[in-house]
Design goal:
By secondary structure, this protein is mainly alpha-helical. The chain is built from 11 helices and no strands.
Length: 267
């Protein structure tokens, strides 16, 4: 199969989405640079630990339990799970996945695209490649911001440790890409696809936070994809293989379901 149709679709997606991609990349880079300025230096950890002992356990649980947030690595890990970062990465995945399939159908451009010698799987492949590449750009910009900050202000954190958090962020939103494409394949307009995917992401995010501090719903925490994303642990002690495989499996299943539905539906 020729790769040319996929390349044409990728250029089409780039024309539609390059401006927000550039803006969000700049925002993520600047945010992570600021986080390196706020992180405690190694010689500040001792007295900050004494202060943090007075913080209620529930608040500490919200910060994550994989590593102490007052160590340089733990604090930088917080930057990769901060709601600002999660919102921007979610916005990218939801915007492109909803627009690539349901959006094109709703705008009527799918009729034009489908009239050309392009298979439906190639539409899905182009969307998948473009979203994944966009995530590389966004997360890469965030890691560059951290690396620049560590050059200006050394904190005893090795740069490849930060890449581990970046890889887990990519896997998390690759999983959400699978979910977004599945939802988009079932809808005829981008609005309903965006609404439903946003709702699923929001519920998952809230469930993860609530399950940390509220015992009655703790057993539901594994149903949130965000529970498999542990950037603090990735920076301090490396990637958990189970977490990575779970997120990869969700991504594969989501894309597979999206392809099965999109191949058989009417446009």
């Amino acid at each position: 199969m020729s790769a040319r149709p996929v390349a044409v679709l990728l250029r089409h997606l780039l024309r539609r989405h390059w401006r927000p991609l550039v803006a969000m990349s700049g925002g993520l880079m600047l945010f992570q640079l600021v986080m390196t300025r706020m992180a405690p230096a190694p010689n500040e950890v001792g007295w900050m630990s004494q202060i943090m002992r007075a913080v209620p356990p529930e608040l500490m649980a919200l910060a994550g339990s994989e590593a102490s947030p007052i160590t340089p690595g733990g604090f930088l890990g917080l930057g990769y799970s901060h709601p600002f970062v999660m919102v921007l990465l979610s916005a990218w995945v939801i915007r492109v996945s909803s627009g690539a399939l349901a959006g094109e159908i709703g705008l009527g451009t799918m009729d034009l695209l489908a009239s050309r010698p392009v298979s439906r799987w190639q539409h899905l492949a182009a969307a998948l490649v473009f979203i994944g590449a966009g995530l590389v750009v966004l997360i890469g910009a965030a890691c560059c911001g951290t690396a620049l900050g560590l050059t200006i202000r050394p904190l005893g954190v090795v740069r490849h440790q930060v890449l581990a958090a970046g890889l887990m962020a990519w896997l998390l939103f690759a999983a959400w890409t699978g979910v977004g494409l599945f939802v988009s394949a079932t809808r005829r307009e981008s609005g309903p696809a965006i609404a439903l995917t946003s709702a699923v992401v929001a519920v998952s995010f809230v469930l993860e936070y609530v399950a940390r501090v509220w015992q009655p719903v703790k057993s539901l925490r594994p149903f949130s994809l965000f529970s498999y994303y542990r950037p603090q642990g990735a920076i301090v002690s490396g990637i958990h293989a189970t977490d990575a495989m779970t997120l990869a499996a969700v991504a594969i299943v989501g894309v597979g379901l999206a392809l099965a539905i999109f191949e058989r539906r009417d446009l």
